[in-house]
Design a protein that fits this description.
With about 475 residues, the chain is α/β, with parallel strands linked by helices. The chain has 15 helices and 24 strands. The strands form seven sheets. Strands 14-17-18-13-12-20-21 form a seven-stranded mixed sheet, sandwiched between helices. The protein has a six-stranded mixed sheet with strand order 9-8-7-10-11-23, sandwiched between helices. Strand 10, helix 8 and strand 11 form a beta-alpha-beta unit. It is globular. The relative contact order is 0.14. The protein binds ligand TXE. Ligand TXE binds near residues 175, 250 and 383.
Amino acid sequence: MTIKNFINGKFENPIHKHWIDNYCPANGEVYGKTPNSSKEDVEKAYQSAQSAFRLWSQTTLDERSRILIKISELLEANIQRFAEAESKDNGKPVSLAAAVDIPRAASNFRFFGNAITQFASESHESVGQNAINYTLRQPLGVVGCISPWNLPLYLFTWKIAPAIAAGNCVVAKPSEVTPMTAYLLGEICNKAGLPKGVLNIVHGMGTTTGQAIIEHPSIKAISFTGGTATGAHIARIAAPMFKKLSLELGGKNPNIIFADCDYDEMLKTTVRSSFANQGQICLCGSRIFVEASIYDKFKIDFVAKVKELKLGHPSEASTDIGAIVSKQHLEKVLTYIEIAKQENGKVLCGGQKVTIEGFENGYYLQPTIIEVDTDECSVNQEEIFGPVVTIMPFKNEDDVLEMANKVKYGLSATLWTDNLKRSMTMSNELQVGIVWVNTWMLRDLRTPFGGVKASGVGREGGFEALRFFTEAKNVCIKY
Ligand code: TXE
C-alpha cells in the first residue's frame, strides 16, 4: 500500500520520490510506504491552502458546519475500515480503535461543526465616551497541524476540525509512524465536499516534512501534539517568527488513591488508566500513589487484575493489550524497565517482551507494575509512554501533593476519594491542566484541554481551540 500526499484535493507522490517504510507493529513487517515529503512538497501544500483561503474564510458558518458534520457522518459510516487501518498501523486492538479512536475522530468534526455556529465575540461600550468597541474573530490564514502516533486520527482531527471550522486552511502532517488513517481521511473530505485546498496532508519525517512546516514563513500558527523535546524545538524555531503556538506535550500523571474511595470502581479504572492503548496515552496515570492503610491490599488486587489482561494480536476480539507502536519505542520502554531495576525498583508483574505464535517479530510487551521506594527515581520522573506504571504508598495529603507536583510535567491528575473537601482543595493545589476525581479520561469536548510546565502551552477543546485558530481584532467606533 503506497500512501500519497493530499494536496489541493488530489493524491500525489512526493516531488523527490523519497519514501519511508511503513511497519505493522503486530508482526514487525513492512506493509507499505509513506512519502518523506520535502520542503517543495510543503510549499506546494501551502500554495494550495493559501489559494483556498479567501473563499473558505468567506464561506458561511452554516455551510462550513454542514461540511464538517458530513465528514463526521462519513467517518461513522466507515468505522470498521478505519479502525482496522488504525490498528494495523499502530498496534492497538481493533476493538479499541472501533470504540474510541474513530468515533472520537468523528465527534471532533461534529463537535466543531456545531461549535462554530455558537462561537461569538464580545462588544464593549465605552460609557460616557460615545464609543462602542466590537471584537472580530478572524481566521489566521494557513495554519500547520502536527500530530503524534499514539491516537493517530483522534489527535489529527482534534486539530484540523477547529482550524477549518474557524475558516483557516491547513497544512497537516500526521506521524510518519502512523500515516494510514490520515491518508484515508483525504478521500472522505472530498466525498463530503470540502473545497479543495482547505485541508492539505503532507506525510513525512518530523525532521524533514515537519521541519519544513514549522519553518515556513507564511504558516501563521502551529498546533502540535507530541514529545516535550520536539515541542521545545518547535518553540525555538517558531517563536522568532511570531507564530501562534499550541503545544500539547508529555505527561507523568499521578493517580492518587485514598482509602475512602469506591475501591472496586477505582481498581477497574486504574487498570484502564494504566494500560489502555498499551499505556501510550499522554493522560495515562503512570505514577500510582496509594494511601498506606490500603497499600498492601491494593498491591495484591492490582497485580491480580493486571495479570488477567489478555495480551494478543490486535485483531483478536479478546485482546486487551496489543502491540507497542514501533521497535524503537519498545526498546525505549524496555530500557526504562532496566533502569528501574538498577534504581531499586521491584517488578511486581510483567517486564518482559512476549512472543506470539505466528507473529514472532511483533512488538509485544507485558503490562508492567514496578514498586518504587522513592518518587525521585527515573521511572517516576521521566515519561516512559508505554505499559509501565509505578506504585508506592503515601502517608497523608501533604505528602502526596508534594510528590505529585515534584515532576517537570503537569498534564493531568486523578484523585480517588469520597471526601469533597479534600478533592476540592487538592484540585486547587495540583500543578496540572486537568484533574479527574473518581474517574479517568471522561471527556467533554467543550472543556479546556492542555497542560502546564513541560506538558505544554495553550489549551485545545471547545471555544479555546476556536480562539487559538482566530485572531481577535478590536474595532472602536465613536458616534
Ligand atoms: O514524538 P515526536 P516521538 C512522547 C513520548 C514518546 C516521545 C517521543 O514520551 O516516547 O514523546 O515520541 C513530528 N519539526 N510523546 O519521537 O518526535 C513527528 O513527525 C516538526 C507524547 O514519536 O515529538 C510527529 O508527527 N515536527 C505524546 C510529531 O512531531 C516534528 C505523543 C510527534 O513526534 C519534528 C507522542 C520537527 N523537528 C509522543 N520532529 C503526547 N503528548 O501524547 C518530530 N516532529
